[in-house]
Design a protein that fits this description.
The protein is mainly alpha-helical. The chain has a single domain, classed as Glycosidases (TIM Barrel, Alpha-Beta Barrel). It is built from 7 helices and 3 strands. Helix 3 (43-59) runs parallel beside helix 5 (91-115). The longest helix has 25 residues, at 91-115. It is globular and about 55 Å long. Keywords: Glycosidase, Hydrolase. Belongs to the glycosyl hydrolase 1 family.
């Protein structure tokens, strides 16, 4: 449990190493998948926030560098490990689960800054890049659109809203993201 990390962070401090802690690194607790259906269920946001606050409170004097989610954009290609959904889940369900992760990340960032004002925190993106098949305009446009789908997570994390190109993507693909006022 946490006692292991108590000892680990103490040893790291003695060795002059500053830890960078990732709160979620592809280890969606099975209980949250079984009982709630993974990140598709809004209730998981509250569980993650509780977990994050617990860890921030315990290690506020030992850790100043945090990641909320590792490679959060991998959920598009690995929905089970990323958001706890079956591989055959539909595109709309995956994007809804991703939305819940982004909200949870924002809440964790806010909680971290309230508990550890000097902390640095965000999420990690996988830096994949899609190259066009040819230099033809339609291939260039398709590659640009795919790259945007990979990287919109950073826009949401930094700006607190979906960029116009993703709103257009959702409209064009008949995807409705259920949001509440507290998501903003």
């Amino acid at each position: 449990g946490l006692a292991f990390y108590d000892r680990l962070f103490d040893e790291m401090a003695q060795a002059g190493i500053k830890p960078l802690v990732t709160l979620s690194h592809y280890e969606m607790p099975y209980g949250l998948v079984k009982n709630y259906g993974g990140w598709a269920n809004r209730a998981v946001i509250d569980h993650f926030e509780h977990y994050a606050r617990t860890v921030f409170t315990r290690y506020q004097h030992k850790v100043a560098l945090w990641l909320t989610f590792n490679e959060i954009n991998m959920s598009l290609h690995a929905p089970f490990t990323g958001v706890g959904l079956a591989e055959e889940s539909g595109e709309a369900e995956v994007y809804q689960a991703i939305h819940h992760q982004l909200v949870a990340s924002a809440r964790a960032v806010k909680a971290c800054h309230s508990l550890i004002p000097e902390a640095k925190i965000g999420n990690m993106l996988l830096g994949g890049l899609v190259y066009p098949l040819t230099c033809q305009p339609q291939d260039m446009l398709q590659a640009m659109e795919e790259n945007r789908r990979w990287m919109f997570f950073g826009d949401v994390q930094a700006r607190g809203q979906y960029p116009g190109y993703m709103q257009r993507f959702f409209r064009d693909h008949n995807i409705t993201i259920e949001m509440t006022e507290s998501d903003a």
